[in-house]
Every structure is written in structure tokens, then in C-alpha cells.
Amino acid sequence: MQESVEKTKAMVQHLAAVNAILEKNEYDPGRLIPILQETQEVYKYLSRDVISYLATSLDVPVAHVYGVATFYAHFSLEPKGKHIIRICDGTACHVKKSTGIQQHIYKRLGLNDDKRTTDDLLFTLEMVSCLGACGLAPVVVIDEEVYGQVTPAMIDDILDKIIAEEKNAKGEE
Amino acid sequence: MTNIPAKTPDLEKIAAHYKQQVADLKRRVIICGGTGCIANGALKVRDAICAEMEKAGEKAVIDLMSHEDHSGETYFSKSGCQGFCQVGPILRIEPEGIFYCHVKPEDAAEIVNVTLKTGEIIDRLVYVDPVSKKPRRHEDEITFYTRQNRVVLKNCLIEPDNIEEYIYNEGYKAARKALTEMSAEQICQKIIDAGLRGRGGGGFPTGLKWKFTLASKGDKKYVICNGDEGDPGAFMDRSVMEGNPHAVLEGMLIAGKAVGADEGVVYVRTEYPLAVQRMRNAIKAAEERGLLGNNLFQSGFNFHVRVVEGAGAFVCGEETALMASIEGKRGMPSPKPPFPAERGLYGKPTVINNVETLASIPYIIRKGVEVYRSVGTEKSPGTKTFALTGHVANTGLIEVPFGTTLREIVYNIGGGVTDNAGHVTGEDFKAVQIGGPSGGCLTPDLLDLPLDFDSLKGAGAMVGSGGLVVMNKQTCMVSIARFFMQFTQNESCGKCVPCREGTKQMLFLLDDIINGRANEDTLELLEQTAKAVQLGSLCGLGKTAPNPVLSTLHNFREEYEAHVYRKICPTGECKALARPEIDAALCKGCTACVRKCPVGAITGKVKEVHVIDADKCIKCGACKAACRFNAITGI
Amino acid sequence: MADTAIKKLTVNGREVTFSDERNLLEVIRKAGIDIPTFCYHSELSIYGACRLCLVDVEGKGVMASCSTLPAPGMVIQTDTKEIRNMRKINLELLLANHDRECPTCTRSSTCALQAIANRLGVETVRFKAPRKEEPIDDSSPSLVRDPNKCVLCGDCVRVCSEIQGIGAIDFAFRGSNAKIAPAFDASLGEVECVNCGQCAAVCPTGALTPKQDRSKVWDALYDRNKTVVVQVAPAIRVALGEYFGAKPGENVAGKLVAALKLMGFKHVYDTSFTADMTIFEEANELLERIQGGGELPMFTSCCPAWVKYVEIYFPELLPNVSSCRSPQAMFGSVAKKVLPEQLGCRREDLVVVSIMPCTAKKFEAQLPKFSVDGKPEVDIVITTSEVQSMINSLGIQLLELEPEAFDMPMGFATGGGVIFGASGGVMEAALRYVAEKLDKKPLEKVDFKQVRGMKHLKEASLQLAGKDIRVAVVHGLANTKKLLQDIKAGKANYHFVEVMACPGGCISGGGQPWGATDRIRVQRQQGLYNTDKAHQVQKPQDNWLVQRCYEEHIGGKPGSQEAHHLLHTEYRNRSQIFDAKLPIMRGTESNRLPITVTICAKQENCPGQLLLGMISDYVKSKQYTPWVDMDAAFSSRPAQDGTICVTVGDQIVERTRFHNAMNTLEQLQNQAAFKNITDAIDKGLARIR
To answer: Which CATH topology does B488-565 take?
Structure first.
């Protein structure tokens, strides 16, 4: 009994954050997009449960929320990696060979067009539309840090550093 | 949203207060705070300089409003995007007007100890003209700036988070005039007379749009600022929102009065966090000063504004899709009519204007029609911002009068076309892609075409959102068409058949061409499909998606034909068509390529001419990179 | 106010008049030019995606006629070289992305894509097939979803949300990845779909089709050991003929009987017989509720899509739904009880087939509650479209056949039983019964025209035996939702409400001939009313064969114990379908009992948590764990009466009153509630093991 009660208590607490977001947005289905954005900020991605829960709370069909969540590139229905690598694929970056950088990272992390997150959930690679830093092309953003005029060697250095830090952190635990 | 009637702001008093504050300053350092410069470490540079200031016992201030007395202080303000992102981080030092570029935190001590103390210029930090190789110490010596005509971007040098500086620069006077002295009809007429045309792409007369919305009956109306700029290679709107957010708000306020709306929404794409932040800050500051809210300037007019963030869908730049998105739906466009002016957001009459359009409004109201019309052309008056990128020496954000020639932009402001190695040779210009994925390309024979809405349309291109991508002779036009098609294909909402299926099939056909699989029917089918998509699509995204294809087909047909019939890519860019060969006359037999080839396709002994086995070759280009004698050709 | 003045515009050089048409497309079609469309339906909102209806408007350019208002003086060209080329390319694009195994598609003869491609003369498909093969979803007992044939016109999405108010399917993803699917790409069988099949009824292609059970029928017919009988629903007779060239509404019942006999059915009966029987039971139930102070209003229960709807969305109204089985289910239980003896066969060798206008009836027939010893009472349900193809497969020329009569006794029906197929029919038949019972004198005027027709909500108020009896008839579940909300809010007040899920009633059910419009619906309805009028016996209570059936087999009279056993049923709360589920326990055996306890996610101390813990302990203490799957369902909608929804298997121990036990009384109540649940678990486990 203790076990199941704990499980459900955790889930209720988990949903309390969603309730707060709904409350803040006055349970208005018209504010579905900010609600999804805020929810994703809390949980990093939109799980099936969370989407169902939002839909029933807003009294709209689950398929509707799913339709909206899958329409916009910003929403993720799968857990993402701890570190997000975003490669700008705007015109300027493209002309300066951003796809080469993409291929390099694919190879380095064992990813491809259908597999964007590493198995250890450490990295997720995204191609994004123009970040507007065209003067620095090609541009890569890793965890909000912007790197301009990127080369494969630079990428290797950055990734090595992150992986080393992660290893150290694990070792300390 | 507050319902408390706002206190009436005294603009003159605020301006006087600001003037007095800055009068006491010792010096002002303006750090470019656009996304590009910040990404390049502009704020780190500022912090480093401030730290050095402290060491040197100098007084520095970042926020003017933090305290009153600023005597003897150096003010470190940030600006909006100054446009010249390529040489960022950019620093300006006033009152001397010194222009430093590529500044690094390591330069902090020297800047403090030399320039800020004595006003002396550090030569290694100044900009060097790429053509003449001469140093340019001040902005007014740099052709990138001198050849521009900055109206919308003018105020981008002010501190965007300080509303007082905006007011000091005559901000909100136009709004006061519109609210207290003008009728809605008068405002519409003035904008019609000014000939202002929408900067978002189509160039529809803004005043007419307002007039239609004003004429629509409705208990509630909306003003939407379309900040969902998503064209790859365009960042004008972002720069305006980051650098001059109050001009956008003031424009919305005036639009609200003109159409009878009391609520405004600024829709900003989520990829622009800084623009979102600056717009929100500006709204808050305007509310606190009584410049947004109820009974503004005692006119009985109420206006509230909120920011809505997009969620990553290019198609939401289309107005009906944008409204669907604000309403919490999938951002799918709906057929027009009904136009937003009749039935828009939540079914209410709505006017949607682009950021730059709205930011132009206060200037027109303040300066009058004649001043506004004194630049630009008869049918396209005023100025236009462009994002200049690609193979050009100076890339960045520029503002020029309509009617400026492409030559002026590419060669004078842009400093000329560069080759793949980055050198200006004077012979490399191939084309300019204007208007992003909806636009077309302009060829060398159009270099003297005055750029305006109508001349571009005539040339099979469009102003679009204003992205200008310069391409050199090593650029394959089929690949460029494919790049844009890939973009629209990805961003198609999937609602209407021509756009959803047509862009996908056009992409396949372009892939066939690039990969040597095309035959004599391919070009015909590509052209037919392009025309069907252009005619049949539901919204602007689909209707204009074929433009890059049609325009390159028109201007560079022989390049397509080379791919299709001769299976070669004249620029060598299309790897699948490459036929790498070793030029026997140049090969020294060093075996560098033999060792680099990942598939063992190259054979040859030391000091003998090497040979590539075409069957084995995977056209990766490793040999070309390895060869020091330029002996590898055809890739 | 509708603008009805006559105005003029020009179409292809000819003057055309118009008045209050909704758009240019309607004006052009009225002028006799049938511009092709996929995504336009006059009953649905305008979508504007198929782009086939583009026309050239002088001075304005090419515009979609579906979304353009007609204006006087407009000069329209419906076909120009550019438009024709665009339409053809459009079709070519769609065909390239389409599973073109046309001959094997159930929609082969009625496919709009095929028809329009033919019309436009699309001769080749020059594009590549970009499509990735998607799995076919046949999880629903009613419908098959084949995404490979979807043209993304969205008709199904709009009918599901706008007409039925459900939204079980919607667009997902974007661009060339866009698809129509239930949430999370789940299968139709596991979501809130109520099986009405209106999506299939508007789908222009074979992407959504009624599930085909024809081969099961052939297997039974070819099996010499089986006695195969069939019941024919009222709505079939006025629609089936359309496939063979008859006008909508033409009654082909007699010819169908002949055809079914030719196919090898031993006996052909009429579902209208049990429709009459339904009136005996349902009207009696209504009278009891009115006289005995039962829950009012009472809702009809003939329509399985409506029943599932109320189970999912308004479980609190389940006590208001008549406990009567639908006519199909009544027929099944009565046939399986009565016919083996009459026909001289064993019960297990009797196969009951239904021909229904309805895809939800397929769902209803397979519900465990309508099975005895694991064998369904109605063995196979086929739709009108399926029976049509069976007739065709034998080469039977339906309209050439000499009509034959239904077999007795279950083939005898009154006019009241026949009009069940039209919205308002059940109500009218019931009123014929109730009026006579309450007024205690023969009813002279049997027509209740207030409840006929296509109006969304039809209301009537009758003075019967000094009582004011208020009734309402509603069709379309979106209309129904609105009515239910009004009833719950006290804004509407009735004694009896008839609900049919499909617009116009069963005559335009999901299994009927494709392409129903309101005009066709009215014609089919009229066909039923004509049959009623021509009938010698119009009042269900005068069906002496039903009376005899009661006397001989069903406890003598309506409402008897045997009647309750055979003719009534129970409902389940399906609201948990939406809740976020947390797995608490997973069994290991292949046969497992699912237990779900709803927990309110808005209340930090919801007693559901305590209850869940107690159930989990009970399951463990009895060592049931290998046979149990337990989930907590998190709801954001607490039951207003403070009860907790608990499901044990298919049997529901719904709405348990449970407390956080602050005092002895509450503890006692908890014990009682808990006992109900453990009993259900014990019973469930006994069945499984």
C-alpha cells in the first residue's frame, strides 16, 4: 500500500505544476500554445500523460492538443538530451556549409536524420531555422552558448569538454 | 491589464530629465546589443571594461535610471543591432564617435587606460576597409554606413531598455498627436498619402488596410504586429524589435487609434528571445509611464498590448495562420476572403502589420508626408531595411531608400563580392537572391535596377521580407533553388494539396537534377508543377514557393540543362555529378591524394602521375583538399 | 436575416441568378456545373484545401469558389487553361501519394479521387511515390483506417468535431508529414471514437471505411451445420436501392428479402419487430419513471454511438438513459432464445446476422454484455454497403426481383417500428404508445409531425391525462452535447428525449450508401413515413405477434423479470479513457483483470489514493497479482458528488463513495464500498482463472 500511495502522491505533485500553469492561463483553450510552452519548460518535453491531462483540463479533444503539439517545431514529444546542440540552417549558414557541421556531429555522436538524441540522453542535435546571427555563419548554439564561424575541430573540442565534465560529475557522485 | 486610468505623461518633462542626466556624463560607450554581437561576446566585453574601470578608479554606470546624479560617470549603454554584425562586437565611444570592432574582453584594460582616459584611438581595434585596406576610425568614414539612409534603424543606437531616451528622441510625440489632434480617418488618410507600403512582403498600401479595418463594424478590434520573421537570412524585424521596441509600440498605438482597436498583440517567433524580452520590457515601461493603458493622453482612447511567442512554424508569418496560432490552434492558413480586416483574430476585425511598417509610422506622423516621400520612389516611398548576407565583403543589416540600385548595395555598402576564399576580386558576381524562399534571383544585367516593390515584381522577384543573399560564380543555382525548396517543403503546413504535395515533388525533381537522374521530361514537369503550385496554393507561402525555381529556371536555364543533359554541374558544387580527374601536367606524384582517398580509388607511384578510378570514386573531395598543386579537377 | 432578393452574375458567359447562397461554389453548382471538390461539404465549415474549386473571377483573378461570396455582376470562368492544368497536376500529385490498389479497395466504385481523376482526364502519374507505407488500423470493430489512401481533405476531422462534437481524430504533424490520426497515433479502437462512422460517410476515398464482415457471413452461409437467419434494420429498405439505381427513399424491403433468400439465408426477419418491442419496454419504463418519480428526463438507448458517447462524456447521466437494449440487441437475445426451438436447430448452430445502416452496431454486437457463454447473441453485423456488394457478387439484379415478405413471427412490424430509422421515429412510436396508455382511449391521430424532419432540435409538448408531457428529439452529437448542457444547467426540461448520433437518424448512418446530403436524408426519411402511412397497423402496441412473443417467451408482459433479463442492459462509465494513467501493478499471466481507480489530481489528499492502496493490498494478500493490471487514472475533473470511479474489468463498480475516514460512520461506509469492489475483483478473478 505504501508503495502505491507514494507513486500516486508523486504523480499528484507532478501534476500540481501543470495545474498551476493552467490556473495562470485561466484554463483558456485559446492559450494552449503558451500553456504547452510553459509545461515543456517544466518537464523538458510533452509526455503523453501531460498532453492528455492538459486536454481534459481544458475540455478539448486530446487529438487537438496532440495536433497542435506536433505542428510546431518548438514542441518535443520525446525526452531530449541534457545538452541541446542547435545548428543554424539559415541561408547564410547554409552557404557556409552548416550541413557539413551537421554531418560531422552525426558521425561523432552516432546520430542520423531519424535519431536526434543520443542513447545516453546526453545530447540532442537540432537543425533550426535562421537564428539571425548571419554575420557569424556558420553558427552553432550549444546550451544557449553561441559559437560562430564553427569548424568540425571546434565542435570536437566543445563536445570533448562537455563529455569530460559529465564524466567528472558522475565520478564525484 | 490594468483598468486604472493612466496618468498623463509629460513628454517634454521626461525628455528634459533625460537631457539633464546625460549632460553630466563624462563619456558614453555604446556596446552593440544585437543578437549577433551578444553571441560574439559583447556583454563579456562590457563587463570586462567595467571591471577595468573599477580597477582604474573610474565611475561606470549601466542603467541610467538606477540613480539620479551621473556627474563624472561613463555610461555603458547597449544599443540595438547596429547592422554590421560581421565585425562585432562593436563598440562606439562618444563624444568622439570612435568605432571599434572585433573587440575582445582582453582589450578591456587598454580601452580603459588609453581611449577612455585620453580619447586616443587604438589603431588595431578600428575597422579596416576591405577594398582600400585603409583604417576607418569613425562611423562616418565607413562606406557600409555612409551609403545607407537610416530612418527606422536610426534610433537603434539608443538604449532600448530606457524609455526616457526614446522620448528624448521625440518618441511618443506622434502618438500624442494622433490621439489628441487627429481623427481615425485623418490618420488613415495621412498614411495613404505617405504611400507607405507593407514591409512584410506583398507591399500592400498600409493606409488602405487601416481604412478597411476602420470601416469594418465590430465591438472589438485588434492590431497585430507580425514579428514572425522566419526567412532564412533575414533579421530586420528582429533588429528593430531589439533595438527600437518603443517605435513598434508607438506605431501600434497609432494603428489602434486609426482602426478603432483597443488591444494589440505582438507576435514574435520564439527563436528571438532577446526581441521578446525587449518588447516585454518596453510594454512594461510604457504602461508605467502611462503610454499604454486607459484614457491615454486624456483622449478617452484605451490601448493594451501583449506579447505572444510563436512556437516554431514559419507559416505563421502568414496572417491567417498567425491568428490561428494566437488562438491556440495549428498554424494553418485559411482562405481569404474573408480578410482579417473583416474577420480576423477571434472573428473580429483585425489589422496585421509587419514590425518595420509599424516602426515607420511615428516618423510619418511626426515629420509629415512630404518629408517621408522625399526619399524613395514615387510608388515606393521611404526606406527599406535589408539583411545583406552571402558572398559579400560586408554583411549585415542595412537601410536604404527604395530605388537604390543593386550595384550600390552590393559594391558600395557591401564592399563587393567575395570568392569562396573570402577575397574581393571584382569578377565574382553571379546573382542576388532577394526575398528569401518566396523571392527570385537578380542577375548581373539587373545591377542597375532601382529596387522597389514594382520593379522587382517585374523582374520576377519580390521585396519579400528583405533578405539579400549575394552569390558568387562558384554557387550552383540549382542547388540554391533546391535549398529554398527544401525550406518551404519543410515549412509547408500541409493543408492544401499543391503546396504539401507539390513542394515535395519539386524537391524530388531538383534532387533528380542534382544527382544526375533527370531526363528530358524533368524540366517540363518541374515547370508545370511550379506553375500549378503558384496558381493553386492556399496562402502566400505556397503561392510563392515556386519562385526560386521559376526564377532560376528563367535566368540560369543553361545551368539546369547542363545538369540534365550533360550530367555536369558547371560550378562543381553538385558532388554527384563531379568527375574528379588528375591534371597530368600539374600532378607531381606526391601520393598525398593516394593516402587520403578513403576508398582507394587513386593509384600511382611516387613521382609518377596519379590516376582516379571513376568507378570506385565516391566524390568526397578529400583528394582535392589534400593536393597542394591544384592538380585535382572536376570536383 | 437571409437576403433572398434575386441577384445575377455570369458563369461561363451565361447569366445565373442567385440569392442567399453560402458561396460561389453553390451558385455555380446550382447553375448546373459540378465543379469537383474533395474538401467541401455544405454541412461543414469551409476548409479550402483541395484547391479544385478554383475559378477565375474577372478583375480579381483566380479564387477558391468555396470561400468566395457571390456578388452581383461577377464574371466567372470555371475553366481556363491554367485552372485545368492546375487541377490535373493537383490530381496527379494526390495520386502519386496514394495507394493505387484500386480494384481491391472497398470504395472502388464510389471513390471521389478516382471519379475526379477520370473526369479531368488524368492519364499518367509522372511523379514519384513519396509515401512511406503506413500500417492499416483495423483495431476498431466498426471502422478501418487506411492512411495510405488519405488525401488529407479533413472532411472526417470536421464531421467528427463539428457534427459529432467529439474530435477523436485530428490533423497531426505538419507539411508532408501531416496526417490525420487519433491522438498519439493511437488506434481508433482505443480512443474516444463512438463508432458512428460519419467519418467514413464523408471520406472521399477508401481511407476510412466501414469494417467489412462479408466473408464471415459467406462462411456461415456455406456451413451446412449452421442455420443462418438475418434481421434487416428499418433504414436499409429506403437506401439500399440507391446502389441499384432506385431513388433515395424507395422502399426495396421486399426485393431485399428475395435477394437474401437467394443468397441462402434461411429466414429473413425485420428489426422493426423488436423496434415495436422496444416501444413496449421503453414506453413502460418511461411511464414508470413519470409515475414513480424516477430519473427524468429519460433518454432513448437505441443508438449505440449515443450510448457510448454518454458513457464517455456524461457518465453522470447514465441513470437517465433507458435501460432498454437496442432493437438489434433485443432481436439477438430473443432470436437466440426463441428460434432454436422454432427452427429446430441447436442454439450454437443458429447464426444471427444483422444488416444495419450503422457501423456502431458492429461495436454493440461484440460487447461482452451482449454475449452468453462467450458467444455473441448477434453473431455478425454487416452494413448496407456490405450487403450491396454481396448482392452484386452473386450477380443478383435487385430491382428485377419479385418482392417477398419477411418471415413470421419476427418479420411482422407496425409502422411505428419502421419509422425508427428516421430521427424522431422512436419518439413518435413511443408517443403513439404512451398517449394511448395515459389517455386510456384509442389514439385516433397517430402522426406527431412536430418531431419529424431535419431540424437540429425538435420539441413537443403534449397534454396527456391532464399531464403536460414535454419531449425533445435531437440528432448529431454536437447538437446533443448542447442539449445535455442545457438540461444539466436547468435551462431545458423534458420528460423524454430521443437521441440519434447521425444527422437525420439511422437513414444516414455510417454504413449507408456514400454521399448523403440533407436532400437525400429527407427523401429517405420520407420513404419511411410513406411506408408507415401505407401500413394497416401503425401503433407498436397493436403488434399482436410481439404481444404473443411476450406471452410465450418473455414473462407475459413488458417489464417482467424475464423481460429485464432479455431486453434490458447496464452501462459503464468510460470517462477514464482520457485520464493520464500511472501503472501501479502489472500481472504476468496472459489473461489479466484490469483495475483502474480514478484519482483527482487537483486534490492533494484525494481519498482515491487511500482506496487504491487498499485495493493493491487486497490483491496482494489474495495472491492475485499475476492476474491483475492496476492503474491509477489521474483526472482533472473531480466528480461533483464526491464519488470515485473504479473499474474492475468490464464490470464497473463505478462511483464509489469513499472517505478519508475521519469518523466511524465514514469507516463503515468505506467498508461497504470496499466490499463491493473486492467482490467484483473476486468475481473477475474467478472468471479469468
So the answer is: de novo design (two linked rop proteins) (1.20.1440)
